[in-house]
Automatic annotation (TrEMBL):
Keywords annotated in UniProt: Acyltransferase, Transferase
Residue stretches making up the Beta-ketoacyl-[acyl-carrier-protein] synthase III N-terminal domain: 108-185
Domain Beta-ketoacyl-[acyl-carrier-protein] synthase III C-terminal positions: 247-336
Pfam families assigned to the protein according to its UniProt record, in alphabetical order: ACP_syn_III (PF08545), ACP_syn_III_C (PF08541)
Protein name (record): Ketoacyl-ACP synthase III
């Protein structure tokens, strides 16, 4: 498997926690503390007419153009998202048509969030390794800002939006990639939008906004996160998963050039890095402060936003990518990226 290019697209509208004093009762010190410890600062969010599919389409068009790629050589499109345009059809089919791809091209969605990019890479790698596909266009993006209530301070300041496109190709004699995929469905309700699906269909009651014990406002159709449980899950499972993957691959920590984790927040990233005794210069963590938690788009956003120059200049770079969150689900991959000429973060519309 060869990664031939990555492009991430972010919306132009920027929100800042400094402008949300009212959400925190006017407590300037609390805002300063959140910025320092958790890394809550700015985030990019879509307007009411822009979707994750729009962001992914823009990223894909730019990637295809920059790679001078004929459309008919793409034989699989995988779209990872939890904010699709429609209940049906899937985003991959919609984007297949909008991009004008060949009819001899498979198109499918993967309903995953924070771990979704690595799961998408695993699925693409499996298709390429088996010979079922030769070139896979992996699209990963979410517009989580549209699932949170503006006055739910537990989640509203965290989530930003983004879409990405990654081109993967089958190559002979490529470096091996090692994957670790794990799940704990018993914790499905720790990060959830309870209503609006088949289990609890949308109705007047599910749209009713109420205040919880902490003073946060949300309805059952908004995102709910048990922050303490998600934090404990992240700092427990992630370090163990990374250790096990490197041990299986028989690769030392020092041999990895960069550890690119899902950009949850700086506090989580710092704790994971500390538990693994990583050199923090090898752990990108500025993306979440610039763009917010972008769910499935956060890892490609961190790669394009913080490592693009390095990946273009080096003959090869060893990366460990790891995502964790909704599901509960977590996934890691150890891979080698050869000189990457197309690795960009662009604004929407391009």
């Amino acid at each position: 498997m060869k990664i031939a290019g990555i492009v991430t697209c972010v919306p132009p509208h920027e929100k800042s926690i400094d402008d949300e004093l009212e959400l925190f009762g006017g407590n300037v010190k609390q805002i300063a503390r959140l910025k320092k410890t958790i890394g809550l600062s700015k985030r990019r969010v879509v307007d009411a007419s822009t979707t994750a599919a729009d962001l992914c389409e823009q990223a894909a068009r730019h990637l295809i153009e920059q790679a001078s790629l004929p459309l008919d050589v793409i034989d699989t499109v995988i779209c990872v998202t939890q904010t699709p345009d429609y209940i049906q059809p899937c985003n991959a089919a919609v984007l297949h048509g909008r991009l004008g791809l060949s009819k001899n091209c498979a198109a499918l969605d993967v309903n995953l969030g924070c771990s979704g990019y690595v799961y998408g890479l695993w699925l693409a790698h499996s298709l390429l390794a088996s010979g079922a596909s030769q070139r896979v266009l992996l699209l990963a993006g979410d517009t989580m800002s549209r699932l949170v209530h503006a006055k739910d301070r537990a989640v509203a300041p965290l989530f930003g939006d983004g879409g990405s496109a990654t081109l993967l190709e089958s190559v002979d004699g490529g470096a091996p990639a090692y994957f670790s995929l794990q799940s704990d469905g018993a914790g499905y309700d720790k990060l959830i939008v309870p209503a609006g699906g088949a289990r609890q269909p949308s109705c007047a009651d599910t749209k009713t906004v109420a205040e919880d014990a902490a003073g946060n406002l949300r309805s059952p159709e908004h995102l709910y996160m048990d922050g303490a449980e998600i934090f404990n899950f992240s700092i427990t499972e992630e370090p163990q998963s990374v250790r096990e993957l490197l041990a299986y691959a028989q690769v030392e920590f020092d041999a990895v050039d960069y550890f690119v984790f899902h950009q949850a927040n700086r506090y989580v990233l710092s704790n994971i890095a500390k538990r693994l005794k990583l050199d923090v210069s090898k752990v990108p963590m500025q993306t979440v402060e610039r763009y917010g938690n972008q769910s499935s788009a956060s890892i490609p956003s961190a790669i394009c936003g913080e490592l693009a120059g390095t990946l273009a200049a080096r003959e090869s770079t060893h990366l460990l990518l790891s995502g964790f969150g909704v599901g509960l689900s977590w996934a890691s991959v150890l891979l080698e990226v050869e000189e990457l000429a197309v690795c960009e973060l662009i604004d929407y519309p391009w």
